[in-house]
What does this fold into?
Amino acid sequence: MKKRFCILMSVVILMAGGSILYSQQIFKKANDIFERFIPPKNYERVKVAEDSFGAYLRSYPLKEYGSPVLLYNGEKKFNNVYVSVFDMPLLDVDLIQCADAVIKLRAEYLYSQKRYSEIKFHITNGMLVPFSKFAEGERVIVSGNKTDWKGGYKSGYSRAVFDEYLKFIYSYAGTYSLSQESKKKKISEIEPGDFFIYGGSPGHVVLVLDIAEQKSTGKKIMLLGQSYMPSQEFHILKSPESISPWYTIEDEILYTPEWTFKKGSLMEFEE
It folds into this structure.
């Protein structure tokens, strides 16, 4: 385990009579979720496989603590609803919004493991667009709501072809297509890498970045992340609860700073 250093914040919340209800610490110089956000006292992180999407999210690089969320045009996000920012570059156009950021993280995870055949997403008209087709030199030609494949383009699994694929997905996918291609999940089975989603226009999605559990009670808490409109850096959300930035996991309505999700909004990527 990495050495923890430079405690920025130590929060202790007391019950009547002085007993400790929650005690947590944030390490401002840590570079990822696992090291920066320590679960409250008596909570332990749930185990995830080393090569899982959840492990990838826990170790994803974070920007320096206190960094603002930037929009695609370099301006700062106007409201402070976040505690940390992912070090994930944006495009200089308004493309990587909420669903696009979640799709990017999932695609980048699979790409990092060279699981190229698993990188495939639907666009809003229902067409399935696999990265493998781009790698074979084919591209999607869009005419109104009609789409078709055409060959003869740059092929291979290079970063350039992958980035071209992602930019196409950002342009034609969204919360609606993501919600249609994903699988409903019970809240009791929640794992890092799942997400809460409302597929609409507008819609929204927040990604479950980490989960911790109180072994004595089975009570679980989670960290959530999002992008938003206009295109902006992916960030870890503050929680309205006393254990912020951790959210209590309940089979109820989920209130986040910029969206409210109905009960039953939890989904997962289809394997």
